[in-house]
Amino acid sequence: MARAPIVVGTDGSDRAERAVDRAGELAKWLGVKVHIVSGYGEDGPLIAPAGRGVPGPQVREQGNQRTRAQHYVDRAQQRLAQVGVESETHVWPGDPAEALLQLADEHDAQMIIVGNRGMTGARRVLGSVPNHVSHHAHCDVVIVATLTA
Question: What is the DSSP letter of 67?
């Protein structure tokens, strides 16, 4: 029987890279696969302006966001490969927290790992990815702390 994988989120930030590194450490120790997730843009359909069939600024911006998200997961996958951890990437159009939760459920993940971005002040009250995930996950959640000088 396969062991339950780990899901980790990345947005390319230093905090997210620390979360990827922690996911790699734990995955290697547990002998499991890591699913790397990056969400981008808004949910819902995007349409060309005035029905002219030409992509408008919103379509191009979402394309740029998708390209950045793909870059983040590719970079994370390379980091994990360097330490001998198998991984799979997922680029998700929509809310990153929902992407993490859904992929964790789909893959019966044993844990979700995220950086602690947005866990203080008003963002904690208003909702951040780690805050939302920690309150809605059906598995363990590891929130990786930021190093302080």
Answer: H
The angle that helices 14-30 and 57-82 make with each other, rounded to 10 degrees, is 40
pLDDT classification of 8: cutoffs 50, 70, 90: very high
SS3 string, 45-114, reads CCCCHHHCCCCCHHHHHHHHHHHHHHHHHHHHHHHHHHCCCCEEEEEEECCHHHHHHHHHHHCCCCEEEE
Backbone phi, psi, residue 126, to 5°: -80, -20
Longest Cα–Cα distance of the chain, Å, equals 54
Domains, the chain, with CATH or none: 6-42+58-107+119-144 (3.40.50.620)
Residues 98-126 pLDDT 10s = 999 999 999 999 999 999 874 444 444 44
